[in-house]
Each structure stands twice: as C-alpha cells, then as structure tokens.
Write a structure and sequence with these properties.
Number of strands: 4
Shape: extended
Strand content: 5-15%
Structural class: mainly alpha
Radius of gyration: 31 Å
C-alpha cells in the first residue's frame, strides 16, 4: 500500500504525555506483567551517560591572569564579607595563588574526606571514594551536590565537587592521597596582590613557625644573603610545624570563633569561599579551584615538554614521569602570568650573551693552538698491580669517610642556616 492509496492509516508522531506511560504501566501491572529485571540499572546508566556527555559538551570555565587580578583586586579592595576568623581572609588569596601557580587539586591542599554519621549518631571522617581509589561504606555516588545557596547555608559540607566534575577531578583521574609533595619555583612579584611569596611569609610569621628568634622580623629574612655555592637557605622550623596543616578550619571557641590549631580546612568550606567570591566579583560562571588549574594547563601547554607537563599535573601518561624527581624545574608562575622568568631574563641579557660568545671563541682558538697527540705509555705489570691496590684502598677510605660525613652533614644542614641568622 502506497501513500496515495485511500484508506491508509498514518502513524501518530506527536509526543505522548507522561500520563499515557503512567496508565500503560498500571495496565501492564494489573495483567501481571512487570518491568525487566535490570530496568533500574539501565535508567541509572542512561542518566550517567547523559550527564557525562552534557559535561563534555559544556564549555568549562578557565581562569587567566586577567581573571586572577580581577578577583584578587575585588577581594582586597571591595570585598565586604566577614569571616569567622580574620586569618581565613589570608587563606583565600593564598589558596587562589597556589592553585593558579601550581595547578594543584583540592586533595593536595584541603581535607576532602566525607563526614558521615555512624550507628551511634556520632560524626566521623572517612576517605572519599575518588580520593583513595576504592569503595567504602558510604557508597560511590554519595556527594554534596547542593546549589550555591545550600553551600552557603550548610557549614558542614565537606566533599569537594566541581561544577562539572562528579569524581573530584576534571580530568577523569583519581586524585589519590597526595603524600609526596612537589617543589615549585616561587619568585617575588612587583605587584603585592600577585606575590605568593609574601602571602606565604605572612602566614608563616603569623603562625610563628621559625625556630630562630631573629626570623620574626621580615627584614632579616629578605636581607639574608645566600652563599654562592647554594641555591637557597634552609630555615629550621619548630617541632610542631611538620604535623600542622597550612590551611586550617575555623571552629567555635569560648569567646567566639577562632582558627583551629590542628584541624585542616575542609574542601566544602573552601568551595564555599570561592563560589561566594566569584559571585560577588561579577563572574559569569561559578569560580572553583579547577578554573585556575585549567588556566595553568593552557599556559603551560606547548611551552614545557610533555614529561614536565605530566609531572606538574600528576598525569601518569608518560613513562618518563616515573623517573623524574619531585622538583619541578619549569617556572609555572611565570608561565601563568605570561612573563619571562628570572632565568630567561638573565640568559637573554646582552652582557651575558656577549660574554658567552667571547668565551666560546677563545675556547676554540685554544683548542686549535694546543692540539697535542698523546702516546700510550708501555704496560708494566707491577705498576698495574699497584694501581689496583691503591684503588681498593682509596675506595675503602672513601666509603668510610662518606658514612661519617653523611651524619655530620645532616646535623649541620639542619641547623646551619638558622645559626647563621642568629649570629
């Protein structure tokens, strides 16, 4: 039967209302016909796929150096938010600068554990499923997904969930417990708003972390001279400092609120700080720590080797990643700010370039002038035996000397810089 034949019945293409499917399910249930066994799982899988595809198609917020300056300028000049303790105010700007310059995840800086109630009603902390890479008794889908208003009102929310990430990370990689820290290059900036070194130093002086009494004055730290054979000065800290979190949670005290001396800052509190700051400063999209992380990825891309890029962002896609040490020798701070680093400025200075070329030319002239041919001496068995015995004696003395010097060096470098500043 063709479309032109009379009496053809055409299929209805209009969208049916939800009540139709509701009545149909009731009719099938009355006849004893139930849904398939795996119907609920199919719905969950479909919802998960739709959510992941919508997240991939959605444009993610990326923070640039202009956005960073806009946020911090508003924060220090026009922000009228009152924190429970004024020490938290410095935490916000320092955390934003660290996320922008280092690209670290929240699990590297804050407490990302879940707060759940046990059978007795007491609250306890358990590791997040995506942070430890295994399932726990909370369930793998339990997350704090409240809106911004709910996050502002709920002070106990402790799970960090990005606006476009349901696993704690935006790159699909389990964050893990960041027990092995990395060393980054931090340089002083002329603009104090963007100077992370000043922020960290102010926090260290406020918490009184240095063992030397003379280091309580900031001028003594900046005027300290680094010897020519060393890259830096290792300042000795007090015994309590290694076990004390850098960012700590505000807590209730007898006379109001204070910053806890031992409790780490919860990721839910940190997320609430950032979202409120982004909303008040006039940003179009929600501001989270991953906005700064994506901005650093775009700044470092095509500027650093792939192995160094994986080292910075903890991506284990390259075998070279396992052979790199924990010191990042690429200046991520200069890359994010879009300026040359101090090493590049020094290497490209006219005086350095001119002296380097002159030294290279003189070296080539000396090689051409004093090119000698060395003849091999005759082989003497007694001389070879003596060389072997002398080599064995030298190795034995060297090993014993190194073991003795190793202990002395550890003791010396632990207190040397601090003793120098005390003098």
């Amino acid at each position: 039967m063709t479309a032109s034949e009379p009496g053809q019945t055409r299929r209805k293409t209009a969208k049916r209302p939800p009540s139709y499917y509701k009545n149909l399910r009731q009719e099938l249930a009355a006849k004893g016909r139930t849904a398939p066994k795996h119907a609920d799982n199919t719905k969950k899988i479909k919802a998960s796929l739709l959510k992941k595809w919508s997240r991939l198609l959605k444009k993610r917020a990326v923070s640039t150096v202009d956005d960073l300056y806009h946020i911090l300028f508003y924060y220090w000049m026009h922000n009228q938010v009152v924190y429970r303790d004024e020490q938290q105010r410095n935490y916000v700007s320092t955390g934003i600068l660290m996320a922008s310059y280092f690209g670290c995840r929240p699990v590297s800086m804050f407490d990302t554990r879940l707060r759940v109630e046990d059978d007795d009603g007491a609250r306890k902390s358990v590791d997040h499923v995506t942070a430890v890479g295994k399932l726990n008794n909370v369930g793998e889908d339990q997350e704090v997904l409240g809106s911004e208003n709910n996050m502002d009102a709920n002070d106990d929310a402790s799970t960090y969930c990005d606006s476009d990430s349901d696993s704690g990370t935006d790159d699909g990689v389990d964050a893990g417990l960041d027990e092995t820290g990395k060393t980054f290059i931090v340089e002083r900036e002329e603009n104090p708003i963007l100077c992370l070194l000043d922020h960290l130093l102010s926090m260290a002086l406020y918490d009184d972390v240095f063992a030397a009494e003379s280091l309580r004055n900031v001028s003594n730290i900046f005027r300290a001279k680094v010897p020519s054979g060393k890259k830096c000065l290792q300042l000795k800290t007090k015994r309590r400092v290694p076990d004390t979190p850098v960012f700590r949670e505000p807590e209730r005290a007898e006379d109001g609120y204070r910053t806890s001396p031992t409790e780490p800052l919860r990721s839910g509190t940190w997320l609430r700080y950032l979202r409120r700051l982004g909303r008040n400063s006039g940003l179009e999209q929600s501001f989270t720590q991953y906005c700064a992380r994506r901005g650093l990825v775009n700044a470092v891309n095509n500027k650093a080797p792939s192995s160094v890029r994986d080292q910075i962002f903890d991506n284990q896609s390259n075998a070279v990643y396992y052979y790199l040490d924990r010191e990042v020798r690429f200046n991520t701070q200069a890359a994010f700010l879009g300026r040359p680093s101090d090493d590049v400025k020094l290497a490209n200075s006219k005086r350095v370039v001119q002296l380097g070329r002159t030294s290279k030319d003189l070296t080539e002239k000396l090689r051409k002038k004093h090119r000698l041919v060395r003849l091999a001496p005759p082989v003497d068995p007694l001389l070879e035996a003596k060389k072997q015995v002398d080599a064995a004696l030298h190795r034995e003395k060297t090993n014993r000397r190194n073991r003795m010097l190793g202990k002395a060096r550890k003791r010396h470098f632990r207190i040397a810089d601090t003793a120098t500043l005390k003098a």
